[in-house]
Amino acid sequence: MPKRYLPDWSDLDKRPLPEWYDRAKVGIFLHWGVFSVPSFGSEWFWNNLESMNIKYIEFMKKNYPPGYTYQDFAHMFTAEFFDPDEWADLFNKSGAKYVVLTSKHHEGYTLFPSKRSFSWNAVDIGPHRDLVKDLADAVREKAMKFGVYHSLFEWYNPIYKEDKFKLFETQNFPKTKLWPDLQQLVNDYNPSVIWADGDWEALDTYWNSTAILAWLYNDSPVKDEIVVNDRWGIGINCHHGDFFNCVDRYNPGKLQPHKWENAFTLDKVSWGYRRNMILNEVMTIKEVLRELVSTVSCGGNVLINVGPTKEGTISPIFQERLLSLGDWLNINGEAIYNTSPWIYQNDTLENENVWYTCTKLQYNAQSPTAVPGPNETVNAVYAIFLKWPENNILWKIVNGSTELSLPDYASVTSQHAWSLKLTHK
C-alpha cells in the first residue's frame, strides 16, 4: 500500500523525488498576464504604480488618459496571435522537457477560468480563452511536462488585505480563494509542477501549506508525478519542498545536498515582457550555457524564463536564444539529460571552465544530487568546457598526468561549449 504523507514537514520531506524531474534538467518559464499590456518596468507594474513610484506615475500620465486604472489594461490583454502549438514547437526545439506558465501572478488575474476570480480572468475579460488549457494541451502533444506557477497571495484582493490587517490570525483568503484555485488547477489541468510564489508575508501555517502538499501527494490526480518548489511561507524556502529555488536566479556554484532549480530570465531586468528592452539586457547564448552547465553539474535544473507579449507572441530575440540552446543540446544533450553530479563538479585547479556530470546505472530517488557511491556503477563521465583551450590542449599536468589534445577548433560543430565523454575501456 502506498505511503500516505502527514501534513507535517518532517514527513513530507521523506517523499522521493519523482524521477522525471531530475532527468529533465531543462524547463521553460513563462510570465504572462495583465502586466504584459503596459510591458514597462517589470511584472510588478501595478504594485509599483500603487506605491507611487515616480517612474510609473509619469509613464501613466504620459501615455494614458486621466483616471486610467490598472484594471483597464485587462481589456487590452488580447492574445490574438497566441498559437499554443507554435509555442510548444519552439520550446520543444529549445530542448526543454517541461514548461511552467503563470496561472496567476501577484496581480490576481488568472489565465484560467477561476471559479473564485469573477471578471478578473482570461475567459471573462481579455483574450476570452482558457490560456492554461490551450498551452497545457499543446505542450503535452510535444511530449513535454506541463506545470503552473501560482502566487499564493494577491496584492489587492480585499479578502487577503483583511487577513493581513488582522495579522494573519484569520485564514479567509486561503480557505475561500487559494485552496479552491489550486484544487481547480490540479483537477482540471493535471500539472506536473506547482511552482509557488508570493509566500513571504505570512507563515506556512497561514497558507495551510502542509495540508496542501499532503493532499497533492496523497489524494490528487497527480500524486505520483507532481513536484513542488520551496516557496510555501516565511522561512520555508531552501528548507522544504521537492526542489529548492531559494532565491531568484539561484546558482550557488557548488554541489547541493537537495535537488534544486535555477530559475533565471533571458531579459536580465524583468520576468515579464518589456517593450523598452535593449539588446545588451538580454542574456547571450554563452551566458545561458554557463548557467545550464554549472547548474546541472551541481545537481540542479534550469528554468529559463521568457515574457510573452500581450498579443501572444514571443520576441524574436528570445526565440533565437532558445533555438540556439536547442542546437547545442542536440549535440551535447547526452552530457546534460539523465545525468547526475560526479565526484567533482568543476576543474578548479587546471581549468575553471570545465564542469563535470556523469550517468549512473542506478537512480537515487532519495538523494538525486548525491555523488556516486562505492557500490554504484558509473557508465560515463562528461567533461563540459566553456572556453576552448589554447593550443587545443584541455589538460596538461606535467608529472605523471595525461595530456588531452583536442581537434582543431575550426573542425568542431559547437561554437560556445563542448563536451567530452569519458568511459572505461
Outline the structure in words:
This protein is an alpha/beta fold and 425 residues long. The chain has twelve helices and 13 strands. It has helices at residues 9-12, 19-24, 45-50, 54-63, 84-93, 131-141, 158-165, 172-189, 204-207, 209-218, 285-297, 316-332, and strands at 26-30, 98-104, 145-151, 193-197, 227-228, 260-265, 300-306, 346-347, 351-360, 378-385, 393-395, 404-405, 418-422. The strands form three sheets. It has a seven-stranded parallel beta sheet. A four-stranded antiparallel beta sheet has the order 8-9-10-13, covered by helices on one side. β11 (393-395) and β12 form a beta hairpin.
Q: Descriptors for this entry?
A:
13 strands, TIM Barrel, 16% strand, GH, Glyco_hydro_29_N, 425 residues, 4-stranded antiparallel β-sheet, alpha/beta
How many individual domains? 2
| CATH architecture type of the largest domain | Alpha-Beta Barrel
The helicity comes to 25-40%
Secondary structure class reads alpha/beta
**How many H/I helices?**
12
Report the CATH C-level class of the largest domain.
Answer: Alpha Beta
H-E string: HHEHHHEHEHHEHHEEHEHEEEEEE
Provide mean pLDDT, rounded: 94
Low-confidence stretches: none
Q: What percent of residues are in strands?
A: 15-25%
The rounded distance between the terminal residues' Cα atoms is 44 Å
Largest sheet: 7 strands, parallel
Q: Supply the CATH superfamily name of the largest domain.
A: Glycosidases
The radius of gyration computed from the alpha-carbon positions, rounded to a whole number of angstroms, is 23 Å
Shape call: globular
Strand order of the largest sheet: 5-4-3-2-1-7-6
The CATH topology of the largest domain is TIM Barrel
Function: Alpha-L-fucosidase is responsible for hydrolyzing the alpha-1,6-linked fucose joined to the reducing-end N-acetylglucosamine of the carbohydrate moieties of glycoproteins.
Enzyme class: hydrolase
Protein name: Putative alpha-L-fucosidase
Domain Glycoside hydrolase family 29 N-terminal: 3-334
